[in-house]
Amino acid sequence: MFVILASIGMGLIAVAVIATVALMAATRDQLTVAVISDLLFYSMVGFYIVWSMFHDSQIDYEVIFLTAIVGGVLPTMSTARIISKGRR
Fold it and tell me: What keywords does the record list, in alphabetical order (predicted)?
């Protein structure tokens, strides 16, 4: 049952990533593209987490922790800088 639900989740995440890329290609507003890029990154991290549940590797958890630390803080700060147009 878990395998079926996880596979459905991976499929939904893949559809969300494709829709996000299509939205990024269609929009011209730089603010929207900046916010959507965070959505794309977190969707790919979620896909990798579900994928790593089914494939054994020694470095899976380290990659997940690194993306949570570095990927959670830095893109959010850069997006905030883009939204505020460089003001502090």
Answer: Membrane, Transmembrane, Transmembrane helix
